[in-house]
Every structure is written in structure tokens, then in C-alpha cells.
Amino acid sequence: MASKSATVQDKSLRKFGMLDNLAYAAGDFGCNMSFALKGTLTIFWTQFMGIDELLMASLLLIVQVWDAINDPVIGALVDADRHTYKRGKFLAYIWAGSIGLLVAGALCFVPWVSAPYVIKCILFVAGYIIWDAFYTVANVPYGSLLSLISNHPEERAQLSTARSIGSMAGTISTQMLLPVLIYDAANELRGERIFIIALIMGIIGFVAFQFMIRNTVVRVNTDIRVSEDRPKFNPVVAIGHFLRNRPAVGATLAPVGMFIGMYGAQVALQIMFQSYFQNARISGVIGMISYVGLFVYSPFIGKIAARFGKKEAITFGCGVSVLAYVLMLILPITPDGTGLALFVACQLLNALGAGIGSCLSWSLMADAMDYEEWKFGTRNEGTTYAMHSFFRKLAQGIGPSLGLVCATALGYDAALKAQQTAEVALNMRYLTAGAYLLSALLQLIAYGLIYNLDKKTLAKMESDLKAAHAKKG
Q1: CA distances in angstroms from 89 to 10, 86, 151, 358, listed in the order given
Q2: What is the pLDDT of residue 298?
């Protein structure tokens, strides 16, 4: 679809179309060639490398706190960078990050089983920090780009959906194949294979990033929105604006809730498929159900957003997800084919609700960046997205750490690997459902009560900004 307004200031740029969506999707595909392996960290370092569960939970939290702090630092550096780059500073930073991600993902899975215990801990922490540094350099500018590729609401919705599709493609390729490749017939983890897999994925991700960089057009020139004597970038002020930016806070707390619940559930889920359903290899295929909603809604998401409003549509979807996980908690999900079918049915119902958010959630942050300009007269895309990413990553550390602590408290013993007791296996079934339900409830609160750009307010903001931009020339 061609753009209704190709650019704010330069009519000679290529009109918005399918290539923009493909390029933006390729960027998140590249990110997920690294990120999708993150869910395997806990099992790899406890079951294969032999690190104690509670120590692992502590290490996860430590590196994730650093991970979170790293994001606003990089975001502030990007916003403060006034150098001129051939393709713009955002794409330049993405290029630099993609180089490091060629090998950084594999450093998180060095299979040195015979290493001294302290060295194993150092390997995990060092590998994660190196990976995180390059991932942040690529991912923070990538997230900020959505608001600069187009300023049209429907096109932003398309880009948000394209990002989710790129993420889905990257995740599917790992979730479907990874369990088959890393678990043997006895449901035992073959951790030595993950290092090679991560290297291959790094190369694929690099190619995807290069395609994205070469085919992305930045159309929104934010320089026309500020005066010649603009003050020097102040990260403290920018962070303050983020915290007062209610749409940004709401659009951030929703994924925070999602990650705390879903990453907590992921730990229990892997153990559940190992010891409750006793078939770890099918966990990846079952996990693909979560993308059904994305397939269902993506062709119509622009019309859904225009008809009902983004906030309204996502909030309704969260309500459906809450219902799905209440059912997962109370239904008799037994360790047999019938129980597995009920589990799949609950996941399918959740997918039909969560799919709306999968399509639209990224565009909410682009709208939040506009809200900052509308309310405060400033734009700090890098810092705004970096603060969003800061809290997401903090939740990504809290989630698996909390899940591992809860699983251990409920009797999980990593040394037993797939041979957990029947009582522990049942506990994992309920921990999975409870963590998923927590995730859905927190998202419902964030989108329904905190995020305040409903259909009417969003239209008013867009109208005011359009008039202001036209006045400035």
C-alpha cells in the first residue's frame, strides 16, 4: 500500500510500501536469531552445566539488571549523537550491533562442562554481558526507527505488525527446531549442540540485518520540529519526560507484566513437558500456537485499529487471555492426550486474544513518542525506547529468576533432569497456568487503566501535531 503522506519534509523519498514492511520485519528477525535462544539459558546452565538452581536465579537477576541499565545508557548516547552518518545514526548503530551479534549469542552457551564451578559462573556472566552489549546497540535504535519510517497511523500499525511477523519468524524457526535438536529420545538435554546452533543463527541474523539496513527509508525528519538554538540533550530531563509520559508508561508496564509472567511460566513449562507430559520435543510445536492470532489479525489490523481504536482492541484481547488462563488453571489438564488437548485449547484461546496486541503493541510506543512532543515539545526517541526496553529487560530477568525460585520451592531438582517426581510434575502444571494468568492480568491493567491514548485522544493528538508541523514548515 502506498503512503498517503510519503514524508514530512521530502517528497522525493520512496513512498511507503511493502518493502518497508519487509525490511522492518527483517530487523526483528535478526534480533530474534539471538533473543529466541534466551529461553534456553536456564535449562542449559542448570541441567547441562550443573549450576545450582538458586545460584542460577541470582546470576540471571544480576545480569538482567545490568542488561536493563545498559539500555537507557545506549539510548541516551544515540539521542546525544549529532554526527552525520550516510544512512542516519539509527541504522549506523544497528549495523555496528549486527557485527557483534555474529558470535555473541554463542558465547552464552560455551559447553565447557568440566570447567571449575567458579569458571562456569564467570563464563555465564561474561558471555551474557558481551551478548547484551551488542544486542542493545542493535535493538534500541531498531525500536526507535518505527516512529521515523512513517508518521501515518495506519502505516505505523503495518510496521508494528511487520515487526511482530519478523519476531514470529525468528522465534518459530527456533522453537520448532530447537527442542528436536537439543533433546534426545529420553528427554535429556544435549547442551553441546546449542553452541553450534547459536553460531549458525548469528550468521543468519547478520544477513537479515543487512537487508533491513539497505532497504529502510527514514521519512520523518524530527529536526524541523525544534529551533536552531535547541538546548543540549539532557538525559535526566528525557527520562523525566518518559516517566510523565502516561502512554509510554502504560505501553511499557504491559510487556513488563507479560515477561514476568511468561518468562516465569517458561521455566515451569519446559519442566512440565519433560516430566508431566513426558515429551519435551513437542514443546516447540505446541508453543507455535501463540502465533495463531498474529496470522488471523495481521491482514485486517489496520481496519481493526481504525474501527475500534488501538487501546480498545488490545484491552479486549487481554480480557480474552485472562479467560483462557483462568480455564487453564481450573480445567482437569491431566498428563495424557486429553489433558494435552485441553492445554492446547487454552493456548489457542489465548492466542486469539493476545494476537491483537502482537500486531499493535509496537505502534503504541511510536504514538507515545508523538505524545511526548505533543505534551512537552521534545522528541527523544532513543531514550524513550531505551527506557521502555530497560523495564522490559528488567522483567525478563525477574521472570525466569522468579520462575526458577518458585519451581525450586515446589520441589524441582535440576540434578534429576527429566526424572522429577509425580508431585513436582503436577506442581509445574499449576505453576505454568498461574504464571500465565498473572501475565494476562497485568497486561489488562496496563492497557485498560494506564495507557490513555484511546481512539478519540489519539485523533486529537495527530491533528494538533499535523497543524504544528505545517506551521513550522
Answers
A1: 18, 8, 19, 28
A2: 84
| Strand, coil or helix: 419 | coil
Output the CA–CA distances (angstroms, integers) from residue 303 to 95, 155, 177, in the order listed: 34, 11, 34
Give the residue among 432, 414, 131 at the shortest CA–CA distance from 266: 432
Residue ranges of the chain with per-residue pLDDT less than 70: 1-12, 221-235, 238, 473
Task: Identify any residues that bridge with 183 across adjacent strands, giving them in sequence order.
Answer: 189
Cα distances from 438 to residues 217, 241, 412, 431, 441, in angstroms, run 39, 29, 21, 11, 5
> 3-class DSSP state for residue 284?
helix
**pLDDT tens digits for range 303-319:** 898 899 999 999 999 99
Q: Are 17 and 3 in contact (CB under 8 A)?
A: yes
Task: Determine contact, residues 280/273, Cβ cutoff 8 Å.
Answer: yes
Give a yes or no: residue 437 inside a domain: yes
Residues 446 and 257 sit within 8 Å (Cβ to Cβ): yes
Task: Give the predicted TM-score (pTM) of the model.
Answer: 0.70
pLDDT at 234: 58
One-letter amino acid of 411: G
> What's the chain's Rg over C-alpha atoms?
22
Q: Does some domain include residue 326?
A: yes
d(CA 401, CA 407): 10
Of the candidates 275, 233, 262, 205, which has an alpha carbon nearest to the alpha carbon of residue 424? 275
Count of domains observed in the chain: 1
Tens-place pLDDT, residues 315-351: 999 999 999 999 999 999 999 999 999 999 999 999 9
User: Which residue in 86, 126, 134 sits closest to 109, CA to CA?
Assistant: 126
Is residue 187 situated within a structural domain? yes
CATH number of residue 440's parent domain: 1.20.1250.20
The Cα 267–Cα 254 span in angstroms is 20
Distance CA 337, CA 353 (A): 25
- 293 within 8 A of 355, measured Cβ to Cβ: yes
The confidence score (pLDDT) of residue 428 equals 94
pLDDT of residue 1: 39
The verdict on residue 465 lying in a domain is yes
Taking only the tens place, the pLDDT of each residue in 71-122 is: 777 777 777 777 777 777 888 889 989 999 988 889 989 999 999 999 999 9
Own/partner long-range contacts of 341-345 (Cβ < 8 Å, ≥24 apart): 343/286, 344/286, 344/289
Helix (H, G, I), strand (E, B) or coil at 261: helix
Contacts of 430 (CB under 8 A, 6+ apart): 329
Query: Which residue has 494538533 as its cell numbers?
Result: 464
Structural domain range at position 386: 18-217+231-472
